[in-house]
Amino acid sequence: MLTRTALDQLDRDDPLAPFRGRFALPPGVVYLDGNSLGPLPRATPGRVAEVVAREWGEGLIRSWNDAGWIDLAARVADSIARLVGAAPGSVAVADSTSVNLFKLLGAALTLRPGRCVVVSERDNFPTDLYVAQGMAAFLGGEHRVRLAEPGAAIDATGDDAAVVMLSHVNYRTGAMHDMAAVTRAAQERGALVLWDLAHSAGAVPVDLSAADADFAVGCGYKFLNGGPGAPAFLYAAPRLHAGLRFPITGWLGHAAPFAFKTEYRAASGLAQAVVGTPPILSLAALEVGISLALEAPLSDVRAKSARQVALLAALIEQAAPGIFRRVTPDDPARHGSQLCLSHPDAYAIMQALIDRGVIGDFRAPDILRFGITPLTLSYADLWDAAATLGAVMAEGAWRDPRFAVRGAVT
Amino acid sequence: MLTRTALDQLDRDDPLAPFRGRFALPPGVVYLDGNSLGPLPRATPGRVAEVVAREWGEGLIRSWNDAGWIDLAARVADSIARLVGAAPGSVAVADSTSVNLFKLLGAALTLRPGRCVVVSERDNFPTDLYVAQGMAAFLGGEHRVRLAEPGAAIDATGDDAAVVMLSHVNYRTGAMHDMAAVTRAAQERGALVLWDLAHSAGAVPVDLSAADADFAVGCGYKFLNGGPGAPAFLYAAPRLHAGLRFPITGWLGHAAPFAFKTEYRAASGLAQAVVGTPPILSLAALEVGISLALEAPLSDVRAKSARQVALLAALIEQAAPGIFRRVTPDDPARHGSQLCLSHPDAYAIMQALIDRGVIGDFRAPDILRFGITPLTLSYADLWDAAATLGAVMAEGAWRDPRFAVRGAVT
Asked: Are A268 and A186 in a shared domain?
């Protein structure tokens, strides 16, 4: 039997507890959706205000040099590189995750001429599949996407496969691939591997170099706390840089962007993956989020995350026994930083929870998803969340008709 | 002989004069670079702070519905549509100008199977050329870019041309194409036309519908005052929507993004051109800029812009006679909202000018570029700019060695 007292003791012993005060969390809320939109770092409003009023308003165009805007994306990229085990110069911050997926799929197909198949899993994040489908339709001919059942991507990787595109942590179940093992198996079959780190960068230890991964993309607004729609990132292994050809080639990825030459000449390394002018306001916010993430030892983050996933599952089972089916694997080596439970009425139940200040999210068709963000989440929060869910179920509060109405974003 | 008194009278009679107070311009600066980065609207810092602190910080993930983030890009797009003579639903705000060029070039090539050439002009903005070159290299085979001399794109449009890609106003010279005439001529040759409006949207009247243009892209951070790296926009004529296929297909362009289906199904109209999650902080700033632009009658803006281009040229000739060669066409029907002058020492001269608070910019190899932004620029500003340039030349101030050192952004 878990007690609130025991959880309070865990909070007192938590080496990450001081991070909570670095974020502006609204009162009365238990926020279990930092894997969809990370909370606001307290330093962000001041930094963004400075960029707007002083750098843009007073510095005007001069700030590209004087305030270092021109180097901002590369600076943030090098910070992200440290977070995901990437060599300096092998990460770029640019565009959205989707656009970056397109760039890397294009680079992979160019590096594997004659191989026309993108292999992925049916339950991968939809935008990954859509980008691959759009690429295949655009290229036509033999190009196509092959969707395997979860866990069966390698079996579906034949000698027609140019690239295996997988999410490190599944958005809907929290299941985590063994990056090094899958990478090795795909490469043995002659394919490149593209990892989507949206649900793992900043949440679980990622070591792209050690796994010898070929490509990766990731998201700035989840565990990196960069703010809504923050710029995304992409990675390519240094051993591939010499032969890299991206399908989208824009002026900021030129070796000499301000020479305004007629012919494109790629900048070295991943700098060529930057295409257009970066969104400075959004980048400045992202830099604050990344800096905070880098302050926390990722081993502490991972230990607390695994413990919180297990505890939340146990607390919910204690508060509402036998009601939910756990979708997230039990073994911490096989899950990311979220707990997913299924229930036929998941949508209405989640709305009722949100109405009481416990914010997780719903994922179709029947998933209650609770994101675990160790920098902001206390152990007492878990108790409160489980107790609220217990009450919602005991009272049948989720049957209120207003919780059946779906908003634009569900 | 022009006098300062005459210019002051023009300011008193200027119907757009009140707009100047709506922008935060630093003291002691004459800003002639609003065509590179538009100045800061006074309403922007408050709006951005609200989005950061209240919508993100307090609303958290709920703001996608409650603060209307999910509709923000479409709302801004419909405002831009009014500014460029586009039907509602035919403009999307997304990504950068470069990425949008890629999407539209891909759509054009798909709509004209068998035609593999992108026609443009040698002096088009480099990123436009780079994007087309990247696309051609990626597709391989017969795909290529054909660069005509300025003004000769139509002559270079044979029956192998899928699309003619031109800037409405040239970034380096200010020369403006006759959009309707060029569009008609290209279409008679069986090609589609893609207009880059970066240097015209918000500065000169643009009527995409009346010109029967096929495609267009444009920039949010120049005359639309959206802030550094603001999101860009793209347009496709409604008559093309049914057959539109973009190469990059992401989740927010899906007909039902939150159903998380495995198969991509395009949203209707230009909504399918949105790919990834939009950068909300940057979009919120852009919305403020667009709203301001929409308040000013574009006929007033155009009349003042043409008059200011002519006056600045005359004032400079008066202050520094016979020194500069005018590159921008004389006829206001053939130029946009900038005055470009050439001089072998243009780089150092511009640095000396900037040092004295007159901010224009340099464009390689020998262009002094002065952007005319009628909402913020007074007639007296023109006098001050010309007088400063006259003094710089008379004193030889630009020969100071520190003005020869090039920054990252020149």
From this structure: yes
